[in-house]
Design goal:
- The chain is an alpha/beta fold.
- The chain contains 15 helices and 17 strands.
- The protein folds into 2 domains: 158 residues, Aspartate Aminotransferase, domain 1, CATH 3.90.1150.10; 274 residues, Type I PLP-dependent aspartate aminotransferase-like (Major domain) (Aspartate Aminotransferase, domain 2, 3-Layer(aba) Sandwich).
- The strands form 4 sheets. It has a 7-stranded mixed sheet, sandwiched between helices. Strands 1-2-3-15 form a 4-stranded mixed sheet.
- α3 packs antiparallel against α12, α8 packs parallel to α9 and α13 packs parallel to α15.
- It is globular.
């Protein structure tokens, strides 16, 4: 007998080593059994507005029957068959064709993975492969940004710029280097005379490339907006400078669109908002709205030509069992069609503005809430000890999120920040519920 009552399920769940595990966090598990739009329903009868779209990824919202139907029909035909050794399947071919030129006209070649971390590893290995084929065999290092998040495989963890993910696991792999992001200069970094924050952060990258030796650096990876780092939006001009530096030193630019991609920022991709034209683009999450696991990378035609002209004994020896998973790819095609058909980019922009206005009102109302920021439906606020000190108050952020959850709203604390990334189908009333409930939760938790 499979148990389905709340108490038994919670007990059974204790056998699970959850992501970012500590036993202290296993209590009060939110056992989700159903979803509809932006709402989650739990086995203990709660109804919660998920203003994080789970992990920034359920872009079209919960409970979509069209995707269920597509998955069902695809599974009846062929749920999965390998992409290795000359085998392939219609949905992966169709999705590769759909994505050709979809992000950038000069990116027409996609490799599929099962998620974001695998996509990071795939990007890094592809950058190394590219330079190897061009005879620049020492170009292997990967530079990433502090507070950046790129996943949890060993290489992706090493690129992730947060020491809490490194210390207990043997540190960062050789060949991974971190540089400051613009946010570091806003709060604590040293600006040179007349230098803007964007220039200082770009200088940090240039100095790192020169310190390591440009002949050893394969790629720089960056999210268009740092998500798991607390929704950090780079200053105007930063990405122009960074792209120029990468070109100057022959360093490939990898854009990590795992969160920003597929409508989150009100654009198809986060890069669109910052005029970023990367050499490699990686995606996951929103490509299927989480209905099936899928990720991937796209490369420029130039990189594709290098891959295609490699000698056979130096093939691009990389791939995963689930690369080009038929059901995942079929779901992705339907998901992208729904984003387009239902005008979810437009809704992300309009509702994002409403959300940001609401968050700005909270900043005006509460002395311990600061720095409302956002683009589309990706937003954040800081919980601070005071607006003067801007010192982060992670404890209160945690308390506020806990109080919000009691009131039926899931908002994610990230250190001293609280992030918002609801499904892109959110309505005006639901946005107002988010803002009003946050107001009540801040009042309750800060008192
Ligand atoms: C920007 C970014 N890259 C990569 C990843 C890793 O993706 P996954 O958890 O699917 O491996 C994440 C996950 O949150 C992410 O936010």
């Amino acid at each position: 007998m499979i148990a389905n009552n709340h108490a038994t399920l919670v007990q059974q769940d204790e056998r699970q080593l959850h992501p970012m595990y500590h036993p202290s966090r296993a209590e009060n598990a939110v056992m989700v059994e159903k979803g509809d739009g932006v709402w989650l329903y739990t086995t203990d009868g709660r109804k919660i507005l998920d203003s994080m779209a789970s992990l920034w990824n359920v872009n079209i919202g919960y409970g979509n029957r069209e995707l269920a139907q597509v998955a069902y029909e695809q599974m009846l035909d062929i749920a999965y068959s390998s992409g290795f050794a000359g085998m392939t399947n219609p949905p992966s071919a169709q999705l590769a064709a759909k994505l050709a030129g979809f992000f950038r006209p000069n990116m027409n070649f996609t490799n599929f993975t099962s998620g974001g971390s695998e996509s990071s590893d795939t990007s890094f290995k592809t950058a190394r492969f590219y330079w190897y084929q061009l005879g620049k065999v020492k170009k292997t290092k990967i530079i990433s940004r502090l507070i950046g998040y790129h996943g949890m495989t060993l290489a992706a963890t090493s690129a992730t710029g947060m020491s809490k993910f490194h210390t207990m696991f043997g540190g960062v792999l050789d060949g991974f280097v971190h540089v400051a992001n613009p946010n570091a200069y806003r709060y604590e970094g040293e600006l040179r005379d007349g230098e803007t924050i964007a220039q200082a952060a770009a200088r940090a990258l240039e100095e790192a490339i020169l310190r390591e030796g440009p002949e050893t650096v394969a790629a720089f990876i960056s999210e268009p907006i740092q998500g798991a780092g607390g929704v950090m939006i780079a200053d105007d001009g930063y990405f122009d400078l960074v792209q120029a530096i990468c070109k100057k030193y022959e360093v490939l630019f990898i854009a990590d669109e795992v969160i920003c991609g597929f409508g989150r920022t009100g654009n198809w991709f986060g890069c669109d908002a910052f005029d970023i034209n990367p050499d490699i683009m990686q995606f996951a999450k929103g490509v299927t709205s989480g209905y099936m696991p899928l990720g991937g990378i796209q490369v420029t035609d130039e990189i594709r030509d290098v891959i295609n002209s490699a000698p056979e004994d130096q093939s691009w020896m990389h791939g995963y069992t689930y690369s080009g998973h038929a059901t995942s790819c079929a779901v992705a095609i339907a998901n992208i069609d729904i984003i387009e058909r239902d005008g979810l980019l437009e809704n992300s922009r309009v509702m994002g503005e409403r959300l940001l206005n609401g968050l700005e009102a909270l900043v005006a109302e509460f002395p311990n809430i600061d720095n409302a920021r956002g683009l589309g439906l990706m937003a954040g606020i800081d919980v601070v000890k005071s607006k003067e000190s801007r010192e982060a108050d992670a404890d209160t952020a945690e308390k506020i999120s806990g109080a919000a959850l009691e009131m039926g709203l899931r908002a994610r604390p990230i250190g001293g920040a609280i992030a918002f990334a609801p499904p892109l189908c959110i309505t005006a009333d639901e946005v107002d519920f988010v803002v009003n409930t946050m107001g009540d939760a801040i009042t309750q938790a800060s008192g």
